[in-house]
Amino acid sequence: MPESDRVLRSFRSSCPSGASPGCYPDTLIGVSDKTTGGRSGNLPPETRSFVGRRDELDWLDQELDPGIGIDRLVSLVGVGGVGKTRLALRAAGRIRDAYPDGVWLVELSPLHTAGLVGLAVVEALRLADQSTGPVIEVVAEWAEGKRLLLVLDSCEHVLADCVAFAEALLPVLPGLRILVTSREHLGLPGERVLYLDPLPVADDAVALFADRAAATGFALDDTNRTAVEAVCRRLDGIPLAIELAAVRLSELSLAQLRDRLGERLPSRLDLLVARDGEGPPRHQTLRTAIGWSHELCTPLERLLWARLSVFAGGFCVRAAEEVCAGGPLPAGRIADLLARLVEQSIVRRHRAAPDRFRLLDTVREFGADWLRALGEERVVRLRHRDHYRRLAREGCAEWNTGRQVAWCERILTEHANLRAAVDCALTEPDRRVALEMAADIGFLWRHCGYLRDAQHCLDLALATDPAPGPDRTRALWARSAVALLQGDLEVAADWAFRCADAAGDQGDPAAVVAAAYLIGGQLALSGRLSEAIEVLSATPRLPLRQDGFGAAQLQVRVALSFAHMMRGDHERARAVAEEVRAASVACGESWSGAFADGIVAQMDLTRGDVRAAVGNARTALAGHGLLHNTVGAAMALDVLAAGVVAAGDGHRAARLLGIGARVWELTGRAQMNSPDLMATRRSHELRVRDEIGDAEYEKAYEEGLALSYEEGLDYAAHGC
């Protein structure tokens, strides 16, 4: 079987046991370049018609146009539900051709703790941040010389962090513009603020009501326009309130809806609205409208709504069943009740994955208030924690199997929920649960690209010096492994020796082998190749496990192959890499196998087998692509470019070098700052220039550089 077929077979057979396809989409929600039709950025497609706001859009066109607007910080400010996000996305979509380096949406509503805005930006930009420096510096270094627009959505609960982010970056990045949506403006010099009013009742508000009510069979005409205007006026023209009211025409007549909205707010909702009693009247109107939607729900629908408020980012039916069931709400009723909430626009289907669901921020806040009023907040949050605790444990247990790729997709999709769950665990008195979750989630995040999140939760869990045990050993391993990928070799060595001591005391042979990977890997990356080979070669050959330590068993052999290669012992490097490839095929995993494919491709080049080198480099690229491993993909592209240079296709090689440069940019460190790798890359460039000339090289290189991440990988995967 060709190696590329092995990778595809691994992908097709990789759905985790017991998981329904709707639990996670094929690509990470909200970050794929595919959502932009090939243009750089991550703006999601619009799923509903856009009504009104012509004047506001014209103003934003001027302010966001880099050729016209002077100020580079623009804020859309208004009450919840007034349509800030929809307007920002529509405006950003209209202007994105003016930003060759992308328009990037950064969704901040899932953040539960301070200090994470920079991380959210790094994740949205798809930067494979492997450094340990401040996140602001990582973004600044990547964005230097670029022209891009960041949309920071829902800033009000992390306002101070957003202020610090904008203050740090705008002065040093002249090509950066930031569009903010918030209930408060940032208050910075030069900030242009558009205070977003509700829709004009007689015009846009009525049009929005008619548009959303059309799904119920309603048609606007002269006989009902006055009643529609009355409904919209009572809702103060707030778009979310109008949308929630419009869908009620499936069960109420227009007259009944108008009359209901004129009644006094029920007394049992007074407590929920009272907290805004001194706030803006339109905010109270919105909460009143949401309260009426709440009143029209059945008791079980209300209870499900309240309990769903604990999810961050989104959820699937199975997660809702496990987290929200209990008491009067049986798990078997949740799917039907969820469908009813979708029909009433309380719950929305996710933009990028129809089998996932989400709550709008204001609706979630109302549900969270109700959950607190019911006295259930802590118990439901603990159910949420325990659901994602089980998910992480299952992911680690099956990581070194043919389900690895699907687990990676699921970890990416559930990132916000995993972050919320581990944050919950870290604030609870039972530190054993926090340690277990940090060990599991930290391991998974390390392999799926969330290095800083992994570092954060592992540092907090290990800071209390937990008692010895398997969970502590796994946490120590994950912490050192994170530092290795970050290039923080001294820190990696410190944690590695702690892990080795813990593994020795524990008496688990697989843990001892896993610790050897940390020590040997650190030595190899430090250039102490003989010592690395000695440590890595001395590890016992154990039956390969399916869990995280099983993955470490393979990574020991990858590190050994790399050390042999760097030392110039090409035959031993090939032999070990081929051994890893065979083991990878046998267990169905892709992470270590893709690195082994890349090493074999480099060894093919040393033999002069150009055809094999190109094939194996493409196989490595496919494997890294399945796991969103940006660093691995960048390394594979360098090897592939070398193979294509050797094959004599200079134009294609130049494009591949451009694609590779774009991917290396996402890591923050071209060729990992390795002088040898940079010198090798330079030699390939000179060879291509000699073959096709400087002018043709620059043209082809720029063509490759202009491709999006997915377009570049697709180009590299096909043709000779």
From TrEMBL:
SUPFAM superfamilies: P-loop containing nucleoside triphosphate hydrolases, TPR-like. It comes from the Bacteria. PROSITE patterns: PUA (PS50890). This is NB-ARC domain-containing protein. It comes from Streptomyces albiflavescens.
